[in-house]
Amino acid sequence: QVQFVESGGGLMQAGGSLRLSCAASGITFSTNTIAWYRQAPGKQRELVARIRGSGTTTTADSLKGRFTISRDSAKKTVYLQMNSLQPEDTALYYCNTWPSLLNWGQGTQVTVSS
What we know:
- With about 110 residues, the chain is mostly beta strands.
- It is built from no helices and ten strands.
- It has strands at about 5, 10-15, 20-25, 35-40, 45-50, 55-60, 65-70, 75-80, 90-100, 110-114.
- It has a six-stranded mixed β-sheet with strand order 2-10-9-4-5-6, with no helix packed on it. It has a four-stranded antiparallel β-sheet with strand order 1-3-8-7, with no helix packed on it.
- The model has no long low-confidence stretch (mean pLDDT about 95).
């Protein structure tokens, strides 16, 4: 059974940085695309960034230059480095496969104050 466990969120001031972690089990990184998603209060869930089995990455245009996705296959963990955080980055962050979705984890809350 596939399971994702997100961690690393917190309360930050604008301009700060955070690195989120997604520990995955029951899934092979080399044959799956893993993505970070986020959902802000009252908004739809959106795709933040994804990393393919080959290791190539795609980041949402609006977040390029600030957010970077990476992985450590040996640790079965995908990371999201977030720099220059802004209040609009406040959301619950999740990881999952892309484009098809599997079971969602609990997510990790990121709150950015101005």
